[in-house]
Amino acid sequence: MKIGITGHTSGIGLSLFTKYKDLDFNVVGFSRSSGHDIGSKEVRDKILNQSFDLFINNAYHETGQNALLQELLKQYKHIIHISSNIVNMPVEQFPAEVRRYREVKLEGNQIIDSYKGDANILNVLPDLVRTNFFLGGDMLQYGMDPNYVADLILDAPVNGELIISHPNWLK
Question: What is the pTM of this model?
Fold first, then answer.
């Protein structure tokens, strides 16, 4: 099985990339650090010109993640989209940059909710995750381990919605 993944050099993306590689899948990663900024249409087109059995839309970009998602839905049959559980939280409590992040993630969810095609999509909405991508505050230390999130994704069927609540916040 050939798997494509954006944002494969840190956080959830790195954990998924490593776990799929360890399972002997052919995994191709795309990230800014490897010259693949999904904010660029040219880069997105280059990614989309390849064939994958599963594509993981993980990397956040204010315009690129959802633009890529819309194209993936036209081309691939199995997609994992990494959103955020921030979409289910009140907006007022966040600073402007976090509100924008939430809006982008909400837009991705709306794209998936309105999709009428036959692709199998797993929309993943994790709570705060320890990663080098974080929009402010000192809450990062309380985030979930990306490996924990990746394990839950690997065990989930690629169809539906997976809300990953922080295990310590469920008590």
Answer: 0.92
